[in-house]
Design brief:
This protein has helices spanning 5-16, 21-28, 32-40, 47-57, 61-65, 89-102, 113-119, 130-152, 177-186, 191-195, 226-240, 255-270, 289-294, 351-357, 427-430, and strands at residues 75-83, 105-110, 159-165, 200-204, 246-249, 276-285, 298-307, 315-323, 326-338, 341-349, 368-377, 380-386, 393-400, 415-418. By secondary structure, it is an alpha+beta fold. It has three domains: 5-71, lambda repressor-like DNA-binding domains (434 Repressor (Amino-terminal Domain)); 74-270, Rossmann fold (3-Layer(aba) Sandwich); 277-430, Hypothetical Protein Pfu-838710-001 (Beta Barrel), CATH 2.40.320. Strands 6-10-9-8-7-11-12-13 form an eight-stranded antiparallel barrel. The chain has a five-stranded parallel beta sheet with strand order 2-3-1-4-5, with helices on both faces. The model is unreliable at 67-72 and 434-439 (pLDDT under 50).
């Protein structure tokens, strides 16, 4: 869950005054990127900038910070429902609405932006270039998400589920990586913060993979052949690979069961009834990392993990996660239940909150610094952790729906043994090792 309150309040105040991010940045003497980070909640303005914002918007600091507002009690989750063409997203929306309303959630949907534009007459084919079209899609996508999130705070429910019918990273499947990065840079955005601004991503696999007889072009904006649908499905999974909570729902069951599996995955993420994490871990031989980095379905991120002082029976840690100088921050509390199952509660942090939490670090444990390779394989999502104190071994993890779920490990990984229940290979124990030691 991410706290959008202050960021969306700044966004509303700015747009109500008719200011662009560039114009507000100029008034404050900061960069456009700083304004973007404030508005998407990835960082908070300094005290000096808060004071300047209150002057620009002609309101008190209390009004700017919404002190005393009960809105801070709201829990707002923003998820992405994505997938290949003819994957069942439209039907899934109805199931999500009916199911989670009964669980006490206010459920709102951000409509698919590309479909809105195409049915409205603005298409990739009548735009000057695909870059221009994708830039328009991204601008409208982010604007709609800000508006819907702001509106969520005015809803009566205490728990709000915002479902984005595709998200900002879906654009990456329809444009070259070079052009995508150029587009983000021109808007003062970066891929890590944009991708991880969503709390979870759920990918429905196209019917063209495993349910070919049901593939059709029912959506007026859809023109893809089965072969094109498969390529776009693969590209979309690759675009979101690297997100800390990506789940892939394949066509291994009938359609109704496929959607029920989606509801179970969303429920697990939301913690209904409890936020269980079912994970299996394997000690493997060090793979060919150069080979992994060349795979289109693999993304490398750097993680710095710090353990905090915590009660017996609990594990609390904070994490910096990202790449190329762009990071997101989180705090996680874990309590073991049995076997591979544990209760896990995660909270997004701003950079300032993360730095403040560092003062509560457990002095008996070292920081864990590791490279994580996130990759999809046969509709499963694996995470490979490479530690600086191991030359020959690494840890491979996968999260499951149930402890007895069958998995297929990629053939380029050589498993030494399963270590799911082996304390020696848990991160909290590895944090006790000296980083300079070689094992």
């Amino acid at each position: 869950m991410k706290d959008f309150k202050l960021g969306n309040h700044i966004y509303c105040l700015r747009t109500n005054m008719g200011l662009t991010q560039e114009e507000l940045a100029e008034k404050l003497g900061v960069s456009n990127k700083a304004i973007s980070k404030w508005e998407n909640g990835s960082s908070r303005p300094s005290i000096k900038n808060l004071q300047m914002l209150s002057v620009v918007f002609d309101i008190s600091l209390d009004e700017l910070l919404m002190t005393g507002s009960d809105e801070s009690e709201k829990k707002i989750f923003k998820i992405v429902l994505t997938g290949g063409p003819c994957a069942g997203k439209s039907t899934a929306m109805n199931w999500i609405q009916n199911f989670f309303v009964k669980q006490g959630y206010g459920v709102i949907f951000v409509p698919e932006t590309a479909t809105e534009l195409i049915t409205g007459g603005l298409t990739p084919w009548n735009s000057k270039s695909n870059m221009d079209y994708q830039s328009t899609v991204l601008d409208l996508q982010l604007a709609k998400e800000n508006i819907f999130t702001t509106g969520a705070y005015n809803m009566k429910e205490d728990k709000i589920l915002i479902v984005c019918d595709r998200g900002a990273l879906d654009n990456k499947a329809y444009i070259s990586n070079k052009d995508f990065q150029f587009m983000l840079k021109s808007k003062g955005l970066n891929e890590v913060e944009l991708r991880d601004s969503y709390d979870a991503v759920f990918h429905l696999v196209t019917a063209a993979k495993g349910a070919e007889e049901f593939y059709n072009l029912g959506n007026k904006a859809r023109t893809e052949t089965k072969e094109e649908a498969i390529r776009l499905d693969d590209k979309t999974i690759s675009a979101w690979t690297g997100h800390p909570h990506l789940r892939i729902i394949d066509n291994s069951t009938d359609f109704d069961t496929k959607i029920k599996r989606l509801l179970i995955e969303i429920s697990h993420f939301l913690g209904e009834p409890e936020p269980y994490e079912i994970e299996r871990k394997f000690l493997i031989e060090m793979p060919d990392l150069e080979l992994l980095e060349k795979l289109p379905n693999c993304t490398k991120v750097q993680i710095i993990q710090t353990y905090l002082k915590s009660p017996d029976g609990e594990e609390v840690r904070i994490r910096q996660r990202g790449s190329n100088g762009n990071y997101t921050y989180s705090k996680t509390r874990k309590v073991n239940v049995s076997g591979a199952t544990r209760v896990e509660v995660e909270k997004r942090l701003t950079k300032d909150e993360y730095l403040k939490e560092l003062f509560n670090a457990d002095p008996t444990k070292n920081q864990i610094i590791k490279d994580r390779y996130c990759l999809s394989y046969k509709n499963e999502y694996f995470e490979l952790d490479v530690y600086p104190f191991w030359d020959n071994n690494a840890i491979l993890e996968i999260e499951l729906n149930s402890e007895d779920q069958e998995i297929v490990i990629p053939n380029y990984f050589k498993v030494i043994k399963e270590v799911t229940d082996d304390y020696e290979y848990k991160n909290v124990n590895l944090a006790k090792k000296k980083v300079k030691e070689k094992e």
